[in-house]
């Protein structure tokens, strides 16, 4: 079991970078000057999407998916050379940032160097042709982990990148790779130095589909035998259905309790509103007030704060994964950036100073997120209006203190137990006194 998960990641914040579209140049060198801004926003982790050469065979789009890797031990020359990568890592470390590398071990490009040298390491269909578990992933072939030599190759690959200077790894579709491989990998690599292990787990419906097709698919609780963190995809399906109007918010709120009670006590979730695979939060949550409320909700849930590049500017257009499509930094919202700049350090401090969490539904779509230090008389309460409601709600607890998000020096809040309060349009985070 991954019981050596460091306590600090429960209040950490990760910034995901798709290097190809992070800057107009799309290189390590061009990204270096932006590292300082990431750190100043309050992040302590940067995660790079895959940095390897992209395959040509069955390529999707003009540039191909970075998850269709032609050589797991090489750097895409379009991003720069290995020395540019090392300089990027050194600059990040100098700013106090840890860097995670995106690792894709379920599959490779259809013209990977490994296919030419070790075709036996791949899954094969009834006619002996390389194949894949998911038909839609037409630009990749899947590895067959029955081969010990493949496992050794991948373990040595991880060791190489750890020695290069990465502080941990984000593992793509980790649920599809045998769990015993991950357990061995963590044990072997962490014996050299502690690394951070983040699993991109998959949605519950996908787990059911894969198992029904006869494939291995690990659940999130299983993955925590090897990983420090798993994506919140087991709950994100409820959120997507809620955003589309097909279910109520209560389904996701109930699932939060499942995560809290049925997962191992050391398990930490990566909380996100968007990533490179999902629509921009600002395009789904229309209106600045609603986006602010949801951002506070996401960042104050227990777990690591996960943010995709440009989210801090309330960008509505998601960069194309298969094309050169740089983030239009000059088109972002300065108002939302100023809000985000205030918010992130507050949320991280709340989670580092308090370790008992409670969620209270005050009214439909209006929630109180309460953090408490169990051994000290210290509590912080956020009020979020997730559905842009009007009117009043009744507080089942007293609320007195200072609004940490307020723009004045010491905005105060005072509501007695059982009293009504006007539902705020924008979120409150009250340090109680």
Task: For the structure shown, list the relevant keywords.
about 425 residues, TIM Barrel, alpha/beta, Immunoglobulin-like, about 30% helix, 2 domains, 6-stranded antiparallel β-sheet, 18 strands
In short:
By secondary structure, this protein is α/β, with parallel strands linked by helices.
Strand content: 15-25%
How many distinct beta strands?
A: 18
Give the name of the CATH superfamily of the largest domain.
Glycosidases
Strand order of the largest sheet: 1-2-3-6-7-8-9-10
The average pLDDT score comes to: 95
The total domain count is 2
CATH topology of the largest domain: TIM Barrel
Low-pLDDT sequence parts: none
Rg value: 22 Å
- The CATH class name of the largest domain reads Alpha Beta
Name of the CATH architecture of the largest domain: Alpha-Beta Barrel
Biggest beta-sheet profile? 8 strands, parallel, barrel
Describe the structure.
By secondary structure, the chain is α/β, with parallel strands linked by helices. It has two domains: 7-353, Alpha-Beta Barrel (TIM Barrel), CATH 3.20.20; 361-432, Immunoglobulin-like. The chain has helices at residues 19-22, 28-31, 35-41, 82-94, 113-117, 148-164, 179-190, 204-212, 220-223, 233-243, 250-262, 281-284, 288-300, 334-353, and strands at 13-17, 45-48, 98-103, 107-109, 140-142, 168-171, 196-199, 229-231, 268-271, 304-308, 356-363, 366-373, 378-385, 392-394, 399-403, 412-415, 420-422, 428-432. Strands 1-2-3-6-7-8-9-10 form an eight-stranded parallel barrel.
């Amino acid at each position: 079991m991954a019981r050596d998960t460091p306590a600090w990641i429960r209040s950490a914040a990760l910034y995901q970078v798709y290097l190809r579209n992070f800057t107009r140049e799309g290189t390590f060198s061009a990204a270096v000057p932006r590292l300082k801004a990431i750190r100043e926003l309050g992040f302590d982790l940067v995660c790079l999407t895959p940095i390897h050469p992209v395959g040509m065979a069955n390529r999707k789009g003009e540039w191909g998916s970075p998850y269709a890797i032609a050589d797991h031990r090489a750097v895409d020359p379009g991003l720069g050379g290995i020395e540019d990568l090392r300089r990027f890592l050194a600059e990040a470390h100098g700013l106090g940032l840890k860097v995670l590398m995106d690792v894709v071990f379920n599959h490779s490009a259809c013209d990977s160097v490994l296919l030419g040298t070790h075709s036996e390491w791949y899954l094969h269909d009834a006619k002996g042709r390389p194949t894949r578990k998911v038909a839609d992933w037409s630009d990749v072939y899947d590895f067959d982990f029955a081969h010990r030599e493949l496992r050794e190759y991948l373990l040595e690959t991880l060791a190489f990148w750890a020695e290069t200077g990465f502080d941990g790894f984000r593992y793509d579709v980790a649920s599809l790779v045998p769990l015993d491989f991950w357990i061995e990998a963590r044990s072997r690599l962490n014996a050299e130095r502690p690394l951070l292990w983040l699993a991109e787990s998959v949605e519950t419906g996908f787990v059911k589909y894969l198992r029904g097709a006869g494939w291995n698919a690990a659940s999130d609780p299983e993955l925590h035998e090897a990983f420090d963190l798993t994506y919140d995809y087991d709950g994100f399906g409820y959120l997507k259905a809620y955003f589309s109007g097909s279910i109520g918010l209560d389904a996701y709120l109930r699932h939060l309790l499942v995560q809290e009670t049925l997962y191992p006590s050391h398990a930490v979730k990566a909380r996100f509103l968007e990533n490179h695979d999902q629509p921009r939060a600002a395009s789904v949550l229309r209106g600045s007030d609603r986006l602010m409320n949801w951002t506070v909700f996401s960042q104050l849930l227990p777990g690591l704060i996960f943010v995709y590049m440009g989210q801090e500017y309330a960008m509505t257009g998601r960069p194309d994964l298969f094309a050169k499509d740089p983030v239009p930094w000059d088109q972002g919202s300065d108002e939302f950036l100023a809000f985000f700049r205030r918010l992130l350090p507050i949320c991280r401090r709340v989670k580092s100073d308090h370790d008992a969490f409670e969620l209270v539904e005050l009214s439909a779509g209006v929630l109180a997120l309460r953090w408490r230090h169990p051994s000290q008389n210290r509590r912080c309460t956020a009020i979020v209006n997730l559905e842009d409601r009007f009117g009043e709600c009744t507080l089942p607890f007293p609320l007195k203190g200072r609004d940490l998000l307020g723009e004045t020096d010491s905005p105060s809040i005072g509501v007695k137990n059982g009293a009504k309060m006007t539902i705020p349009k924008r979120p409150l985070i009250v340090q109680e006194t």
